[in-house]
Amino acid sequence: MSSSSAAARRLLLLRHRHGHLLPKRHFSSSSAADGLDDGGRVKIFDRDLKRRHRDRAAWAMRETDGLVDAVAENLLDRLEDCRKAFPSALCLGGSAGAVRRLLRGRGGIERLIMMDMSADMVKKWRESENGTGDEPEMHFVVGDEEFLPIKESSQDLIISCLGLHWTNDLPGAMIQCRLALQPDGLFLAAILGGETLKELRIACTVAQMEREGGISPRMSPLAQVRDAGNLLTRAGFTLPGVDVDQYTVKYNNALELVEHLRAMGETNALFQRNPVLKRDTALATAAIYQSMFGLEDGSIPATFQVIYMTGWREHPSQQKAKRRGSATISFSDIQKQFGPSEN
What we know:
Layout: H1 3-18, H2 30-33, H3 47-60, H4 66-76, E1 88-92, H5 96-102, E2 111-116, H6 119-127, E3 137-142, E4 155-161, H7 170-180, E5 181-192, H8 198-212, H9 225-234, E6 238-251, H10 254-264, H11 279-293, E7 300-312, H12 331-338
Parallel strand pairs: 1-2, 1-4, 2-3, 4-5
Antiparallel strand pairs: 5-7, 6-7
Helix pairs in contact: 1-11, 3-6, 4-5, 8-11
């Protein structure tokens, strides 16, 4: 038996033990089955299922994770570019544990609130309090980013590391974050972008076409880089900033990749997903992944695209764009001064 086939069969065994390889369709009510909330608005993600994913991740996540730590470190580096301090800060879900561990006094934070929709995750954070005295004053809250339970204008800083991409209304969640900030408060976020797990998406698509004659949604839609700036503007943030980074993580096989996604709480939570992953499709996905993307050493790569967003709540002291038409020099004058451009 080839190593890829063996990995695929282990993947199938995991499916039988835990109920799914890629999460099954879960319906709690007729309206949920239609992907609508009580107000008739379309829901892309099953937030109750995502909470259960977070419950599982609370006990499955690694003590340290190279990918998560790299993202958190990169996000926190932005605090070093700010001259001001942020006495009160809120850290939302996702990889908040890594943010807390890697904060190391950056941002001048004196009081830190850590919030997650999973009570198990919050419990783990509370129990892992190190008590060394170098942490800010800690508070823990069970809450949902879609219904932020934070008083308006109460925080100087809000950080979200790898969590907001699971909200059904991302602009709405970001608006709530802006309102929770004090004037001149800072919003920092890192979300997974659309190129994330592109290898797995391709392998799943090819396997489904081969084995089932069609495709069905098994992986979550993610934001595109070109949309990030618009998201910040729609949410009302000033001085918006967006940049993107890409990480490639090597795994021994597809099983190891899926286990890592489980430990991060990043498995699929779509409402519209097939309830069954067929045996042949599971085996084919692992084999195709290895065949198409396998490296010389036998490992497989997985791409994680991370979009970093920075925005501020408006304040009179902030720089503002000049009024349209207020320029005192024209481009033609500049061209005359410096001469025509050379091709």
